Amino acid sequence: MKTPQLPENEQQRLASLNESGLLDSGTHERFDRLTRLAKRMFDMPIALISLVDSHMLHFKSCDGIANGQVLRDISFCGHAILSSQPLVVEDAQQDERFFDNPLVVGPPHIRFYAGYPLQLPDGATVGSFCLIAPEPRKFTEDNVSVLKDFAAIVEDEFAAISAATTDELTGLFNRRGFYNLGKYAITSARRRAEPLTLAWLDLDKFKYINDTFGHEEGDNALRAMASLLRESFREADLLVRYGGDEFAIIFSDTDEKGAWVAMQHLVEQARGFNQTTDKPWQLNFSWGVSEYDHDSNPDMTNWITSADEKMYAMKEKNEQKER
């Protein structure tokens, strides 16, 4: 088996993928319609839209195979993103790159693969539109042309999602909105000589909720957290679902002490939620706050790191208490 190489622009590619919000925006019916249509048009048992992260292959949509993740090192799509041209493997058992690949010798027993690379508006190749079959197939130039059209439609959808600043699941600002509005908040606070504090929040045992009660309940937990944020804080505060189970709040005209008091109020709100909810899970979280230093003028990344480190310190204390 040949492990796929890393693209020369790997760090920039990953940065574009993370900033696009595609990894955090969940599945979309419009993508599912495309994979269903592709299956019928090409008479293929499997069609999927993949995103290639640093170590994993994520399915944005899949039809004909269980949703999940695949290690990048054994993925066909890891090879597909290395070129702007489609990757067509008519018989994987006859291809030195894949004949002993775990996905060929084991489930789903791939023999045929056709993947068209997918790009973001900035040109970063982040995944592929794939067709898969457990037996060898021929793939004509006309087939490639149609697959290219499917990929172009997906890229248009990627562009729309990447341009959005609102998280579809929770209605809060997403990562792109956080960076865009966060920079404006810093500029505004500096101009007015006002304090500005960032709170970083991470749900505790979120993986347990997903694994035990299912991803639908995981989504419900994220929505519940978003509702608590809206109920607890001012309209002037910037509320963000940064990604996964991470949330951020930028408190305007608030120093670190004031943000700490505000977060304690959020803790009380969550406690009340847990006492009255009929959900099978509890809503708990760890958090940290960091005031923006106008004198040193840290960039957004350093500011996030400061709050994130304080959050993890609290998470470690919480985990120690449970042992």
What does this protein look like?
With 323 residues, this protein is α+β, with helices and mostly antiparallel strands. The protein folds into 2 domains: 10-163, 2-Layer Sandwich (Beta-Lactamase); 175-322, Alpha-Beta Plaits (2-Layer Sandwich), CATH 3.30.70. 45% of the residues lie in helices and 20% in strands. It is built from 10 helices and 10 strands. It has helices at 10-20, 29-42, 77-80, 102-105, 141-163, 175-192, 206-213, 215-232, 256-276, 300-322, and strands spanning 46-52, 56-63, 69-71, 87-89, 112-119, 125-133, 196-203, 238-243, 246-252, 285-291. A 6-stranded antiparallel β-sheet has the order 3-2-1-6-5-4. A 4-stranded antiparallel β-sheet has the order 8-9-7-10, sandwiched between helices. A hairpin with a 5-residue loop joins strand 2 (56-63) and strand 3 (69-71). Helix 2 runs antiparallel to helix 5, helix 7 (206-213) packs across helix 8 (215-232) and helix 8 crosses helix 9. The longest helix has 23 residues, at 141-163. The chain is elongated and about 65 Å long. The two termini are 43 Å apart. The mean pLDDT is 92.
Describe the main β-sheet briefly.
Answer: 6 strands, antiparallel
Fill in the CATH topology of the largest domain: Beta-Lactamase
Which CATH class of the largest domain?
Answer: Alpha Beta
Overall shape: it is elongated
Q: Please give the radius of gyration in angstroms.
A: 22 Å
